[in-house]
């Protein structure tokens, strides 16, 4: 059976890991990398007075499986010198070689049998580094991050997928700490929290080598998260990474949140210095309880608290809108919707879930547009999030949000709700629910595909490929069972 995705052809008559659900992931990767090569990398090289001549871009597909990503990179992206398709399965490498021949890419794609970490470590020297590294493992990418940030060329792009969402979203905070160096709590905004945990982990690994990352695009879709970051070198800028990291305080009762940065910059007459942040949190009172409802407050983090998207880069990627119909990718409509949704997001860490806050005050849930209008009418900013259709991302203080819900509830008896415990005075702020013209966003008015519905059975991650798990070269070598009659 021959399958075609983009310009690449695959033969699926042999056992190897392939998930058709990940087509959106691969289309997004192609689109982002294409814009990166065409607009960003070429401009960067030109500024350094080094002009791209012919094919000079080196790409690593570290966990290649079928080789599909490598095949698409080689055929659909310009200026590619070669793509190294690496895998630690002997069966997978043989299938990659067959696919290379099938697509006629013997001069563009190199199949390599080896450990991904070892392969990346062998390309740490400046003249061997890759302009792009793609990590799409089964589960967590944590063990690959240290070697990945070392083998990416200066101003190159690192693309990372993680599918261990149960770990990143708060089910096992101890495992999350072991893998990513951060702890989690169960929150409605757990998917954005997962993105920020991953970004902080990547940046932390880069900082050890006087490098730092610039997030270009970070998304949470389906059953995984995916980040695209540029890797830069510079000891001075790497020091500023600490100012982009913070912890999250979360109330277990009313779900109020607050971000507390770890470091801050302090200027004097002579130089710029970094020092520990002064704790100015407003969520906890004298008894270390939530000032709004008196419940316990938990801490998550550290997380990345800087922007997780680059507006210029997202705008470049959004140019797929003008792609001729015959050249459009298989998931074109969803790509357009997600990128538009991302472009509308505020650069504010985390978000609340609209109906969750109304449930706290035991009130019927109004339309989201009414709450957004109230926030906008008060002079604050508000947006949704691509992570959650009910997300409420705003720079308004939590106290004002509670004023909105109290005003909405003022005609209803709420003695039995947690609101009875809220200590601040009622109706401190005037709340205007009149429809605001900016409360409706383009993705909504144009009815774009923003949140994919599950299609059919077995929607989600597939079972891990068996491949050559018993390869004698594998670090996870599994001994074959010895028959009892052969034991002396």
TrEMBL record:
Q: Which reaction does it catalyse?
A: guanosine(26) in tRNA + 2 S-adenosyl-L-methionine = N(2)-dimethylguanosine(26) in tRNA + 2 S-adenosyl-L-homocysteine + 2 H(+)
Going by the entry's taxonomy, the superkingdom of the source organism is recorded as: Eukaryota
One Pfam family from the record: TRM
Q: What is its EC number?
A: 2.1.1.216
Q: What InterPro entries would the database entry show?
A: SAM-dependent_MTases_sf (IPR029063), Trm1 (IPR002905), tRNA_met_Trm1_C (IPR042296)
GO molecular function, a single term = tRNA (guanine(26)-N2)-dimethyltransferase activity
Which biological process annotations from GO are given for this protein?
tRNA N2-guanine methylation
This protein's UniProt keywords: Methyltransferase, RNA-binding, S-adenosyl-L-methionine, Transferase, tRNA processing, tRNA-binding
State the similarity comment.
Answer: Belongs to the class I-like SAM-binding methyltransferase superfamily. Trm1 family.
- Write the protein's name: tRNA (guanine(26)-N(2))-dimethyltransferase
Question: What is the species listed in this Swiss-Prot or TrEMBL entry?
Answer: Angiostrongylus costaricensis
